[in-house]
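Progress note, sequence design subtask.
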């Protein structure tokens, strides 16, 4: 996608995994997270889980929470879950909180300008770096930032079960028990979050506040499109705005894409018509294919692909019996692939014995291929 430097960027920034200028239709969720930071240390709401399928705006929401948390007196560490996550969290806190501390103008050998464990500011002494692990370092940072009236907010995207996740979560639980001013917000696909909650070491996270991101309301999207086009002096009838909003299916990423292309294709005329909408919707789906569908399908095995191809041929919801008929597999052979595809967030089971695609338009894309 070509970068557009026009004023439509104030309203539409369809970079996947980025934060648009305005988060649409999530005011309630944002208020829940920010209000939780004002609750007493140890409150269950200060540890939150965001669950949502691809394109539901999980990453954008984390970015917005990080921005608003700064105004509430929190130093943030925002990371994507990976094996070196604990070290990344420490580095992010030190980097984002460093402006609160002035470094000494002169450094002498063995000079200790800070509290125990620090050489100066939020920089750890050499002995602390070598002798202490993640939990101790995080505790020291909590204490140091508390001197400035600041807390710590850890934001983790794409969570999954791993040794690093266990270390971070267990350390958080212990520091809350020590009455440190720390909070945590995590985001991930529903099944990935489910695996984390079922991990024996992480069962305490079942007490965390859980927020499920459903499609945003078409009314919210309609209102936002109306505001955007009026502000950009683009003429668009109420009927076409309604049609454009409906084509998003409530998916935040698709809302951004369609809005972006509507403004791009109406630059010369400053007017949106049926043809403009058709072109914009087609371009948006093409981007969905490149940025969502292809990366989703690429890692799948041949058998996984056979499974979703069979699903795509059928009307949703697809029954287990119908899949067995189309694939010619035995029921027990179906289960491993069903489970794996559900865990990957590609399909979901709304009712026992039934399956649907979790990502809008994915079935159409598969049939096209």
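Output:
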């Amino acid at each position: 996608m070509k970068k557009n430097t026009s004023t439509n960027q104030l309203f539409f920034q369809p970079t996947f995994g980025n934060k648009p200028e305005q988060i649409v239709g999530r005011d309630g969720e944002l208020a829940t997270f920010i209000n939780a930071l004002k609750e007493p240390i140890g409150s269950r709401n200060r540890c939150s889980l965001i669950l949502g399928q691809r394109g539901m705006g999980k990453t954008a929401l984390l970015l917005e929470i990080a921005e608003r948390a700064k105004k509430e007196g929190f130093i943030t560490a925002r990371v994507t879950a990976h094996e070196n996550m604990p070290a990344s969290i420490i580095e992010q806190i030190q980097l984002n909180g460093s402006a609160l501390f002035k470094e000494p103008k002169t450094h002498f050998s063995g000079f200790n300008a800070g509290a125990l464990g620090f050489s100066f500011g939020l920089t750890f002494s050499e002995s602390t770096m070598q002798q202490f692990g993640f939990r101790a370092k995080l505790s020291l940072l909590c204490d140091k930032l508390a001197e400035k009236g600041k807390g710590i907010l850890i934001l983790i995207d794409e969570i999954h079960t791993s040794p690093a996740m266990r270390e971070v979560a267990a350390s958080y639980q212990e520091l809350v028990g020590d009455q440190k001013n720390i909070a945590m917000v995590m985001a991930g696909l529903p099944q990935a979050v489910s695996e984390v909650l079922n991990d024996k070491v992480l069962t305490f996270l079942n007490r965390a506040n859980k927020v499920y991101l459903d499609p945003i309301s078409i009314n919210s999207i309609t209102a936002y499109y109306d505001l955007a086009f009026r502000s950009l002096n683009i003429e668009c009838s109420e009927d076409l705005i309604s049609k454009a909003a409906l084509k998003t299916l409530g998916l935040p990423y698709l809302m951004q894409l369609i809005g972006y292309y509507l403004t791009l294709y109406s630059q010369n005329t400053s007017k949106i018509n049926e043809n403009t909408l058709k072109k914009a919707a087609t371009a948006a789906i093409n981007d969905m294919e490149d940025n969502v569908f292809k990366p989703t399908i690429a890692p799948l095995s041949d058998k996984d692909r056979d499974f979703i191809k069979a699903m795509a041929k059928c009307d949703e919801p697809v029954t287990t019996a119908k899949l067995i008929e189309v694939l010619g597999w035995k029921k027990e052979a179906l289960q491993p692939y069903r489970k794996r595809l559900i865990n990957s967030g590609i399909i979901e089971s709304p009712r026992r014995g039934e399956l649907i695609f979790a990502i809008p338009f994915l079935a159409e894309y598969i049939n096209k291929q």
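The mean pLDDT is 89. Work on this subtask will continue into the next period as scheduled.
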